[in-house]
Amino acid sequence: MCNDPNKNSQLSIASNDLLARDASCVGFQRFHRRRLLQSVAAVSGAGWLTGLAEKLARSAELSHSKRPKSLLVLWLQGGPSQLETFDPHPGSWIGGEAKAISTSIPNVQISDFLPATAEQMHHACLVRSLVSKEGDHERATYHVKTGWRPDPTLFHPSIGAILCHQSESNVEIPRHISILSGEWPARGGYLGPSFDAFQIGDPAKGIPNLKARVDEATLARRSGPLLRTLETEFQRGRLRDMDRTRTQHQAATDSALTMMTSPQLSAFDIDAEGGETKDRFGDTSFGRGCLAAIRLLETGVRCVEVELNGWDSHINNHALQMGRAEILDAALAATLQELHARDMLDDTIVYCGGEFGRTPQINPAGGRDHWPHGFSALLAGGGFRRGYVHGATVAKPEHEWFDKKQSIDPTRFAEQPVTIPDLHATLLNALGVDHTQEQMTPVGRPLRWSDGKVATDLLS
């Protein structure tokens, strides 16, 4: 239950600008305690209260940060090159044309293709040593999104589906959303289609099919007695023990009707943001998707995935990666900035990466091929360490290591490797989900959410 801010006049004056953002007192919106208590101390002139307020605020934030509320996946489909993004090796024979620039983390550099992101790296936990056993686009995408390698007997849920399954619903719009999704969006797997990501395109174009084509009276009549009559006929002849929700028909219809009239639909409307804010994200569909994602998470959505495809650079690697990185740079930097400014970074885990990286050697077509033996991902927020870089790749590997006649030993390319199952176990742990919890799958065997181990070095 929300407290009345007017009970204390000094408190009301000191925190008026802070309360404006939380005026609705919605349960899933959070008031930042440190700013509130510091405002109280400033108004009262009580110097002793500042220290106490700081201790109480830090304690509350540490407790709160153990259970992040949401996940934002910035999915780079096609395999971004680690050497042109987060792990450049300029001056080496594998470095290509990309240069390195300093970041807000002392002594840490990233590609000069990402200048705005470089200024926000103090918010990030950068993993430079991801390793995978999948080098095909579809299989590798499945592997990174679910934490499991493809299995013909079982369809695993994505991490967003697990998060929604393990939490209560507090919104009238979908809790799992995919923006600009391509061929392989996040799915519910064996948890069922109700946990599939709700897919939308460019937020600037709105959401299709949500406005009724008839007047309110006609819609009420059709969605009331007429719909119930049709639903009864739809169920006739089905198995006697099959309830309505198992068919998904009634549940899907009810959800759609609720969503059509929900005020929470305004979260999709990025035009409600100021022009300056929109400009920082870039005039691209991906940038608009990232801004919409923040608004959705602020409303109470649990997981949003925003996809930027086109990273598959088998030819002309330098130009292609630079073009994609330019779009990513503005949106990623603005996302970290905005989450921090809105006091959401403690409650939101950001994952930015793709299905694998690109080969250290450049092929005869000037491109880089698929490379799962040491690539990068950026993590931020939640319980992850900030301003930290984990692992490394070899700057000057020997040419003979790439002899395709021999099996590649990934330990030669990545120090402190993090496997995809370990990455998933760590993400679930940071989200407050027990990754060892078992579920009974449709094939009749219990299965953990993840068979990886938590990479504790990544966590604060």
What is the SS-derived class?
A: alpha/beta
Q: What is the radius of gyration?
A: 24 Å
Please identify which CATH superfamily of the largest domain we are dealing with: Alkaline Phosphatase, subunit A
CATH architecture of the largest domain: 3-Layer(aba) Sandwich
Percent helix, as a range, is 25-40%
Under CATH, the topology of the largest domain can be stated as Alkaline Phosphatase, subunit A
Q: What oligomerization state is this entry in?
A: single chain
- Total helices: the number is 14
Poorly predicted tracts of residues: 1-50, 53-67, 239-246
Whole-number mean pLDDT = 81
What gross morphology would you assign? globular
- Report how far apart the termini are: 31 Å
Tell me the number of structural domains: 3
Key traits:
460 residues, 9-stranded mixed sheet, 34% helix, 14% strand, disordered N terminus
Tell me about this structure.
The chain is α/β, with parallel strands linked by helices. It has three domains: 32-65; 69-207 and 265-458, Alkaline Phosphatase, subunit A, CATH 3.40.720.10; 209-261, no CATH class. It has 14 helices and 17 strands. It has helices at residues 9-14, 16-19, 33-44, 47-65, 115-118, 137-146, 159-165, 216-235, 244-247, 249-260, 275-281, 285-299, 317-341, 420-430, and strands at residues 70-76, 100-102, 109-111, 124-131, 176-179, 198-200, 303-308, 348-353, 357-358, 370-371, 375-381, 388-390, 392-393, 414-415, 418-419, 438-440, 446-448. Strands 1, 4, 5, 6, 7, 8, 11, 12 and 15 form a nine-stranded mixed sheet that branches. It has a two-stranded antiparallel ribbon with strand order 2-3. Strand 2 and strand 3 (109-111) form a beta hairpin. The longest helix has 25 residues, at 317-341. 41% of the residues are buried.
